Amino acid sequence: MVERYFGLAALGSTPRREGLAGLATFMTMAYIIVVNPAMMADAGIDAGAAFVATCLSAAIGSALMGFWARMPVAMAPGMGLNAYFAYTVVAGMGMPWQVALGAVFLSGLLFFLVSLTRFREWLIVAIPLSMKLGIGAGIGLFLGLLGLRGMGIVVDSPATLVTLGSLSAPATLLSCLGFLLMAGLVARGISAGIVIGILVVAALGIPLGLTELRGIVAWPPSLAPSFFQLDIWGALTLPGMPAVVFTFFLLTLLDDAGTLIATTHRAGLMRPDGTVPGLGRALQANSGGAVIGAVLGTSTAVPYIESAAGIQAGGRSGLTALAVAALFLLALFFAPLATSIPAFATAPALLLVAGMMAQSLRDLDWDDITEYLPAMITALAMPFTFSISTGVGLGFIVYVVLKLATGRVAQVNGAVWVLAALSLLEFALHG
To answer: CB neighbours of 348 closer than 8 A, spacing ≥ 6?
Structure first.
């Protein structure tokens, strides 16, 4: 029955191969179990509840992707979206985390409605490739700044805004060691390189008194502090929040579309005309992940590009995603270990992920200033304004202005006009 439902014979796969592929994917993305709760705790959410919400949203999202879309793609709270949640909406705008969860919930509903229509393809195609690349790289640079700050390499300066921290501090030295270890392991093709690096740094901090080991295995913490604590009314009515809902929606759409296209192409599931079979179902599963994540108490769940590791290991069906879901459920019982890991051990992972995301800049058209300059403005504005939405808005405005200035208005489609106008209005009202 399993083979018939997932079409394993037609895909040339077996349940054993799908299970091993799921393990490979899980090992490459398991760092989110540690990193996401730390970021949610920065937003004020109870760390134990955030750990449970992370594992459950990843398990449910991956199960939806496996059962409904039948794709070998796993889901979990998205890197970049969690940073936008914690550091732009909550810390930057001063919004309560409950309101931010309300915005995630509403963006998930909007995403679901869009996934039922052909508007999704129109919007995905309408946004210029250069802006998609700039947004991806910008989120990476934003994560890089967070990582450098968490490592103690970048600190505040009243004279120059930022400056070099104390490289002789024990925590900073361990963070630097962890970054080099992670990078080396990943370069050697070791799928669990980031997880190994985090655990090694945390362990080295124990004899130095920098890591407090709280245990390894226990019953999961209570989800009550974050479960169903979302404030939907606040997300609808507070100044600036409707724009936040739209930004969550836009970033999720771009993230999901890019990851699904890349992973299905890698798996050989993409049609010859470049379309993705089951894209509508996949996007519906993604929207369900966002809504469920908000109810549980975490930021938006998205497909993970790390799913490519499982695809490389032979995963071709939704059974791979179901294996990942089962492993995230098992991870619920390792809360003491996950909550023992200090920030200086997870910060190098942010910096490494930042470097991976910044690779998208190489695909820009560097011979066309109307394409690469808006993308660079987007990428640079995110870390320097400490706001992902600001970077996106400035990028679209600059894109439209440059096309107008060079007489290439025909290259600006309706979606870009709308996004630029909304961004300009947002800056005028709340800038």
So the answer is: 147, 151, 175, 176, 178, 179, 182, 197, 198, 201
